[in-house]
Amino acid sequence: MDKKPDTSPAATPRRRAEKTPLAGPDAAGLGPMMTELRRRAEGQMRKQLKAGARGPGSKTRGPEEQADPRRSLHELQVHQIELEMQNDELRQNRDRMEVLLEKYTDLYDFAPVGYFSLDEAGRIIESNLSGAALLGVERASLIQRHLQNFIAPSSRAAFLDFLAQVFAGTVQQDRELALVKADATDLWTRFRGTTALAVSEGRRWCRVSVSDITPFKRAEEALRESETRFRVMADAISQLAWQARPDGSITWYNRRWYDYTGTTLEQMAGSGWQSVHDPEVLPKVLKRWKASLSAGKPFEMCFPLRGADGLFRQFLTRAVPHKDQRGRLLQWFGTNTDIEDQERAAETKHRLEVLAASNVKLEQEIVRRKSVENSLKESGLHQREMAGRAIEMQGQLRHLSRHILKAQEDERKRISRELHDEVAQTLVGINIHLAAFAREAAIDPVALKRQIVRTQALVSGAVDTVHRFARDLRPTLLDDLGLIPALQSFMKEFTARTKVRIHFTAVAGVEQLSNARRTVLYRVAQSALTNIAQHADATKVEVVIDRVPGAIRMEICDNGRSFDVEQVLFAKRHKRLGLIGTRERVEMVGGIFGIESAPGKGTTVRAEVPFKNLSAAKSDAPVEEDL
Fold first, then answer.
1. How far apart (Å, rounded) are the C-alpha atoms in residues 417 and 29?
2. I need a labelling partner for 287 at 20 to 30 A (CA). Which of 214, 310, 429, 602 fits?
3. CB contact at 8 A, 195 and 206
């Protein structure tokens, strides 16, 4: 029985070597070689002829008899030598080819990945030893078996699509597929395939390499499990935890963060974390955070965070960078620890220490006062003088108290009258209009609309009145935006009401003052402008807030009528409570209050409040406005 020729891709190199015509000058690249071979054969022939001519028994023939036979014999002998030399060359080439084929076979069979030759139906035409070992089947048993029988059911559709893509084009295909070995062991593998040349039988086939990536898959699964354990642990801790990219954008928060802030993942996307920070502290946090990002160094800072109840609590925030072995920053891990209770405990402890120190000082003061009292007892004259001064001061105090009580009662009366005359009357009008709605709703819709418009106007007026009362008592702008915006708002309303023009200039650094001192300056301006409107008949006022050594100075100058400062401030009767109260306010914060008034020059009210820590860089840009 004739043996069927080996058509496998592995046998292709040997078959091509056997069928390649190596003889003849027309062979590709063999012309010069054959010419050299013939030259060598002729040289060998000449050596043999010379040796034969000198040998015993040789006969000599004539030129005519010997010419043709000698030439024919010469050609035959040369051709014979050529054939012998060619056979030697072929044997040498065959030996080299066998060595190369053996090396190729070893590399093919013992490659670190499995190699398969498949036809279009997915049948195995050839396999190396590594491929057979990968499937757990002897190589001889694999031939003509379908490779898809070793593919896990979940990956068979992907394998068939992979095979179709390989035969559809020349681009290498790459897929990750699950295999099931003969012993039912599961493997994760990477398939890489490309089409190959057609074999002699006309079948199309492809080359496929299969590498075992199960360790990598298991490592990925272990990494996912590790991440899951990390997130479960992070969700279980009492701290707020988060992760960020190298650029600082936060990618993950633990469950405790969402529980405390009452936010969602969508709300925290991008820079959403800034929404739970105190707006006044946020610029400092961003500055410190950007510095840590730039330097790649740990971040630590205490600042408040708003909870789901809308209240702020103090947190200690730490963030550490995670770097690889080459020092490249990979990500940030951060935690926020609630230290509100510790802060309160520390504050309480500090207060107790302050109180203890104050008690010591009070005890010392008691001792000192007892000593002074003993000294006073020894001096009757001094005691009488002190008693007289005390009586005088008590009289002044009673006088001032009566003025204060009268002023309070007058203010209550004014507020009551305005509430009765404006707000109450407005509310009664609204009630009347609402009663008219019920009567006219079904009768005259047009009249109903007019009634609604009038009622809205009444409501708006009542709201304006309430706002004015609130602004007169204490403007919210002073607490929310600062002294300068509050003064600008008050002066605009003052100008609109009195038609007195105001030129206002202030250094921006005044906002660095404490809230109490800014309030004092606001009340000084409010009292001075009120007195100008009531008594000065001025048409122009200039308000200047400037920086002087160790203090902030406010000056309010008008072009109205002047008055006797001594009589107003120091007379025993007819004292102006507004100016006295203003002076008391300024002196309460350690400031200085003064008034200058001269005929033809108007009046200047001046107040200075101490402030030694004013930053010159922030106060060099003045705010100036004509109102």
1. 123
2. 310
3. yes
Tell me if 44 sits within 8 A of 80, measured CB to CB.
Answer: no
The answer to whether residues 136 and 181 touch, using CB atoms and an 8 Å cutoff, is yes
475, 490 contact by CB (below 8 A)? yes
Residue 603: strand, helix, or coil: strand
Side-chain-facing half-sphere of 64: CA atoms under 13 Å: 0
The label of the residue with tokens 């960020």 reads: 244
- Cβ distance 108 to 13 under 8 Å? no
How many helices and strands, by DSSP H and E, does the chain display? 19, 16
How many residues are given for the chain? 627
Q: Kindly give the residue spans of alpha helices, DSSP state H, lying in 379-482.
A: 380-418, 425-440, 445-473, 476-480
Dist. CA 467–CA 430, nearest whole Å: 18
| Separation of alpha carbons 514 and 208, rounded Å | 79
More confident residue, 206 or 196: 206
The answer to whether 517 touches 611, Cβ cutoff 8 Å, is yes
Rounded Cα distance between 455 and 436, Å, is 11
Tell me the H-state helices in 330-379. Answer: 340-378
Q: Minimal CA–CA distance to 533: which of 573, 490, 564?
A: 490
Dihedral over Cα of 451, 453, 457, 459: its sign: positive
| Gap between the Cα atoms of 354 and 358, Å rounded | 6
E strand or H helix at 138, and its extent? Answer: none
pTM of the model: 0.34
Q: Facing residues of 119 across strands?
A: 205
What Rg value do the Cα atoms of the chain yield, rounded? 54
Token pair listed for 370: 């007892």
Please report, in angstroms and rounded to a whole number, the separation of the first and last CA atoms in the chain: 119
